[in-house]
Amino acid sequence: MTIRAGGLASGLDTNSIIEQLVSIERQPIRAMESKKASVSNQISIYGKLKAAFTKVLDKLKAIDTVLELGSFAASSSNEKAFTTKADGMATKGDYDVTVGALAKSAKMRSVGISNASPTVKAGTLSVTVRGGDPQTVAIEEGESLTAVAERFNQTVTGAFATIINDGTNSYLSITAEKSGHTAGLDPSTALAVTESYTGATGSELGLTTTQAAQNASLTIDGLAVTSESNEVTTAIPGVTLSLLAPTAAAEKLTVKGDAAAMETKIKEFVDAYNEAIDLITKETTVVENTARDKTLAGDAAVRGLRGEFSALTSAAVSSLAGKTFDNIAAFGIKTSRSGKLELDSAALKTAVAKDPMAVVRVFTNADGIAKRVKAGLERYTGTDGVFKARTDGLNAQIKSFDKRIDDLGLRAERYETLLIRQFGALEKTASAWTAQGNYLANALR
């Protein structure tokens, strides 16, 4: 730090003079920093726009397939017999369902082994599950029934063992993890155990089947259906039946469009879209005293976004010409003058009740709303999109500003050093003149 004592000899406020001259020299730096701040603000706005449009893109990705957007409610007339649910692949319909039998897992149990002497003979168990490869469980000499159960569970995949105790004896119980048996194979293939003993002491397990594997049976509109599981997922596309108990007569299964669920999904897209449109409007609208260099008002591409996306959302889906619905306005989603979307819940509910799949197709067809708006958004938000290109260009400007500010700062520092040296020399000269004047004045007295 340079220490200055300005003006002591000359009477000039040299410190103030130097500061003012250096301040003038630094004016280009301040102008450059102001430009840098404006560019940084624009980068921030592009970041906000990208985040807003990425949110819209995420909401579209959640409704761009039939499975995701299609929403159906399924109900059972007797939930003690079966419950049901439907996904986007379902269709409206009513069905008569009769549950004949529930699926059951194969079970085996050992003979009772006295609690007073619960050891098992040494040997092996060869376990086959659902006709697969044998799995071998080793039994060591003197092992307890509990130890055998633990090793079984560590070794075997597809079945599990547990101990049942009646107070006098303990039993090894083995259960197949999956219910039912492979169609076309004998139920006994679901779980089979072969015992082989080499030990001389302890008890043999003597495993026998206590519950044969059984597939579920039901009829749907008079057609016989079998299932290895009580969760029947393939009988009716998009519908899952959870069987709970046999029925004496047919019960009703009803599938219909779920307007509320579909509206929720669509509304999430509409809300995100409107947030993005609001942001575009805010950052591109020029009013009195608007600092244009700190907004995106000068970016024609961004200014045109509202019009571009209004066209993408409102235009008809050509593949649906002549169908029930071919555009979103037909079921209550209209574009306002501001470019935002307005959702009429009552109109949407009516449309879903009339033909839910017609609504879904407007979004999910190959040329539907979701697909084409997604493509438009990705041109802006993608890794080589408009927002990335704009941000890269502005970041390059920031780097250029930083270099120029550094250069100008060094020049201002050198200039300040020069001024200090020059004014220091002036002070020395003034001091010498003052000393000489004082000498002459004293000599002439």
Radius of gyration: 42 Å
Assign an overall shape.
elongated
- Compressed to H and E, one letter per element, the order equals HHHEEEEEEEHEEEEEEEEEHHHEEHHHH
The largest sheet is: 5 strands, antiparallel
Ends: how far apart?
A: 44 Å
Question: Low-confidence stretches at least 5 residues in length (pLDDT < 50)?
Answer: none
What percent strand?
Answer: 15-25%
Q: Would you report the number of β strands?
A: 18
Return the domain count: 3
The oligomeric state is single chain
SS content category: alpha+beta
> Helix coverage percent of residues?
40-55%
Rounded average pLDDT: 88
- What strand order characterises the main sheet? 1-16-3-12-13
The DSSP helix count reads: 11
